[in-house]
Amino acid sequence: MLRYKTGMKRPFVICIFALMTLVVFAQQASVKEANVLYAQKNYTAAVQQYEMVLQSQGSSAELYYNLGNAYYRSGDIAKAILNYNRALLLKPNYDDAEFNLEIAQKKVVDNVDVTSVFFLKQWVNNLGDIMSSNGWAVFSVILFMLALTAFLVFIFGRYRSLRKTTFNVAIASFVIALISVGYAVKQSNKVVNSTDGIIMVGSVTAKDSPALNGKDMFVMHAGTKVTIKNSVSGWTEVELPDGNAGFIPATSIEKI
């Protein structure tokens, strides 16, 4: 029988752990450096550092929020609004990002009237924004476990009153868990398949067709939030909250 030297695995595991630790420390140092630059009011350098961290470390609501603050302080309102929205996309209940977004939006030239939404649909959407997709997923797992526990008590319980109560708890927990799964999927799709965008140029004229000689429809300014409907040969079809739609050059908008 062949023998393996299991002791050789230990140095390898230690090296991997040490490497991962160094990476984490390097990432934390990069974020700390960006925070220091921001505190020193060197906002342009802070923007560059936060952008570099996003490229190397990956996205997070906190990084987008800090980047939005740096862009706001540097005077780039459109970029600030873009990153505040990205932070809220990952963390819908991010109060600080929502507060700063409202401040930044006051500097946007366009004041678009929002089409009213049926109150029940609005309530359902607001409920979904209480947590992120991960939050809803964890909540659904907890409820499924509660439903299973209650069902087992119902099956093996000796007292009739207890069995009746646990049966109701099991049914209610299971139904709410299914709803939570639905919200988890919905929130995940919002992140992966986001259809919202921010106008990034000073001003842009929407056309009735994807062509320079198309009829002028309306003008939008930097920081305006729109819904992306379609993309055609370097043009993007967008829709304002008031229902007005048109085509703009794809380079004038950035997807959230």
From TrEMBL:
What InterPro entries would the database entry show?
A: TPR-like_helical_dom_sf, TPR_rpt
Stored SMART domains:
TPR
Q: Out of the domains of life, which is the source?
A: Bacteria
Plastid among keywords: no
Q: Which organism is it from?
A: Paludibacter jiangxiensis
Whereabouts are the TPR repeats?
61-94
The record's section on Gene3D superfamilies has: SH3 Domains (2.30.30.40), Tetratricopeptide repeat domain (1.25.40.10)
Annotated keywords = Membrane, Signal, TPR repeat, Transmembrane, Transmembrane helix
- Xref: Pfam families: TPR_11
Signal peptide start and end residues: 1-26
Entry annotated with the keyword Transport: no
This chain's protein is named: Tetratricopeptide repeat-containing protein
Annotated membrane-spanning segments are 136-155, 167-185
